[in-house]
Amino acid sequence: MSAEAKPKLLWLQSITCNGNTHSFFNHYDLFSILSHFELLYHPVLETEYTLEEVIKGKVPCDVLILEGSFREEGFVKSGVEVISFVETYAKKAKFIISAGTCATFGGVFKQHDPDAITGFCFDGEEPGKRYKRYASKLISLPGCPIHPKWLSYVLMMIANKRHIPLDEMHRPQELYGITVHTGCVRNEYFEWKIDTKGFGLKEGCLFYEQGCQGPYTRGSCNKILWNDVSSKTVAGMPCFGCTEPDFPKTTLFETKTNMGIPATMPLGVPRRAYLTATGVSKSFRIKRLEERIIDYGREKTD
């Protein structure tokens, strides 16, 4: 690829709901971002090549975006196993981006057949059979769906030939180096153990009584807001942990506790430190916060 040439981009889908495509298409600067690439194929957009031409394996590829989970056999397009032509382009590509939790870890579709369905390089949190082969090219972007700005960040870093620091699961540290709990507007309520009493309410923490997974989930949803204005917790709904390898969990809206203490500590928090902080916070009564919960409840009732 010459210095002047745009990177050649292919977006291939396997077992998917199209959620990541639709999310990215909501980016307000979509076509400006894509203008930095030569988009050769996308299953929704009108592009230079058809799927039948792509399947033949002759299309050039610098950046490969994968959407959807994978199985070794039994998922066919135009008479060809999807995994076979995807691997053809994975070998050619300089970068492989797994867009979404399905492509990264297996996601929702893995629940249907846990032994056969995986992400492209990861099987849940464990490296899969293709990991060693493609790890040097891999950028993981889990999310259900991904935030459009997460993908635009990666694409613009590639277009500008910038290094992207990654964690052990190949997630960009800029996007996944914090938890969803970071920046949550309800953090003061979390610190003082004051929970909301329902969904859609603007006051109170969602952790203990509503099962918010924000303290366990890596992602920048409360740092890079959706549509620049909101997130699940801003809207009064608990985080479901959709960027994590174990998503979707079988029990939602519940935080398991032992004698009022979470069975699993928030990421990076030692149990002893959490118990100490909890003991201190429970010894105080924060009237100001409690009154806000009561006042908002009255407001909703009225």
From TrEMBL:
Instruction: Provide the residue positions that the database annotates as binding [3Fe-4S] cluster.
Output: C221, C239, C242
Q: Which GO terms describe its molecular function?
A: 3 iron, 4 sulfur cluster binding; 4 iron, 4 sulfur cluster binding; electron transfer activity; ferredoxin hydrogenase activity; metal ion binding
Q: Name one GO cellular component term.
A: cell envelope
Give the record's keywords alphabetically.
3Fe-4S, 4Fe-4S, Iron, Iron-sulfur, Metal-binding, Oxidoreductase, Signal
- Keyword Oxidoreductase attached: yes
Residues reported to bind [4Fe-4S] cluster 2: H181, C184, C205, C212
Q: What Pfam families does the record tag this protein with?
A: NiFe_hyd_SSU_C (PF14720), Oxidored_q6 (PF01058)
Quaternary structure, per UniProt, is: Heterodimer of a large and a small subunit.
Question: What name has this protein been given in UniProt?
Answer: Hydrogenase
Which organism is this entry from?
Sulfurovum indicum
